[in-house]
Amino acid sequence: MDLGFETIGNACLICHDNGPVLATDPWIKGSAYFGSWTTSHEIPAQQLAHVKACKYLWISHGHPDHLSQESLAELKDKEILLPDHFGVHGDVGLRGGGRVARELREMGYKVRILKDGVWTQLAPRMRVLSLGDYNQDAALLVDLGGRLIVDSNDASDNGGGTFVRQIVSQYAESYLLALTGYGDADMINFFDEQGRRIPPPAMKHTPFLDGLELVLESLGIRSYVPFSSQHRYQRTDSAWANECATPPEVYKTSFKSSQKQLLPIFCRCDFTRDEVRSIDPPARTNLLIPPERFGDNWSDELEPADVAKIRAYFARFEHLRTFLGTLNFRVGGKDNVLEIERRHPLGITFETPRASLMTVVEHEIFDDLMIGNFTKTTLHGPWERGGTVALYPDFIPFVTKFGDNGGAHTKDELVVYFNEYKRRGFFAFPPDEMGQLTRRRLEPYLV
Asked: pLDDT per residue over 202-242, tens digit each?
């Protein structure tokens, strides 16, 4: 292709300027979240070759369906472009890509950091602009021959929306690539204290495309490509969540707008010929794989040394002591209770296999345990937040976004962390109920 783009896999955008130049979030091999996720469709040979021919890769954030170690191992010759995420290490702030940049460099990859809000030329007719946010997510804008692609993948509008709208207004033709769907791409495996599953909102299959049209309208974008949601669950202990995933045909049958354009999920958009073609990769065979194949045996119990590591890991997160009473890890059928702050009525029980639990603790990637949706999470006490049962905004972001990825565990570190993101100017909270609840929870650190 002379000029244009393709979409394939889960969140892979391939941009062409006289051939392939840039691929984003290339999950082209292997599984994610301890084998729980696989891509919903095969990667065709042609698009696989295009990814391998690119000079540049852009990685939005550290989740394994975006930063796939197995995939990157086949792409060692590429220059990896990263958002300018921020991390705290003691009294020192680590700019220049934060944790992801540091670890990729340690593994021998060539890394370049894209400063927020600044265009970088990659090819004669291609330039890119990256926007990172305080949730350690990021969006990428691609100017491709005078047309604009907005790749927001998993990122919400945490302060960059106004800036993006201003840029979109400068283009006659623009495209949005963003996560939509019923809402399974998160932690949804909750149970009540009687051991009954709490049906996640995604299980209701509530129509969502009217809301998408409002997003397109607010951004001033006409064309949309469903993106960052083409996965399915393949572990026998997470396969229940396939009922919550969004089938591709939902987009085709439910998008009714006469003002906006829905492009195929996997598409080839040729700007030179001004045509869009569907890429029709075969769906992956619906095989279910036992967790033992991925090293998880539900009968394995924790050793005393394991419990000590878990206790030390969670002791660092000072914010937990402001609301949480206990944490319990039910492993191999045995409870291991950690007291956080006894006066608080809220508690959590995570029932999960030992191997994956100890991996996330040792590597500080607790989100990977949650999003796989094989871990059974029981909430004790009045946990309703923003009209739903969730570990937002107190537990998940403070442990996984600000802590694991941002290195901010103490109050002082959180103040440093948020001051840096405020300084950059792309900092705000969504106007919905959860966004405003998050704002109130963060007020002690926004000084």
From this structure: 999 999 998 899 999 999 999 999 999 999 999 999 999 99
Calpha distance 13→50 (Å, rounded): 11
Q: Which domains does the chain have, with CATH numbers?
A: 3-287 (3.60.15.10), 304-445 (3.30.1050)
- Which candidate, 198, 146, 203, 150, places its Cα nearest to that of 175? 150
The structure's pTM equals: 0.96
From residue 44, give the alpha-carbon distance in Å to each of 10, 75, 124, 350, 428: 13, 17, 28, 38, 40
Q: Taking Cα atoms as reference points, which of 366, 360, 298 lies closest to residue 331?
A: 298
Q: Looking at the DSSP assignment, which residues form a beta bridge with residue 121?
A: 127
Strand partners, 326: 339, 347
Tokens of 156: 């919400």
β 324-331/346-351 pair status: parallel
Please provide the DSSP assignment of 49-92 as one string.
Answer: HHHHH-SEEE---SSTTTS-HHHHTT-TTSEEEEE---EEETTE
Instruction: Give per-residue pLDDT as tens, 108-157.
Output: 999 999 999 999 999 999 999 999 999 999 999 999 999 999 999 999 99
Q: Is the dihedral of CA 265, 271, 272, 276 positive or negative?
A: positive
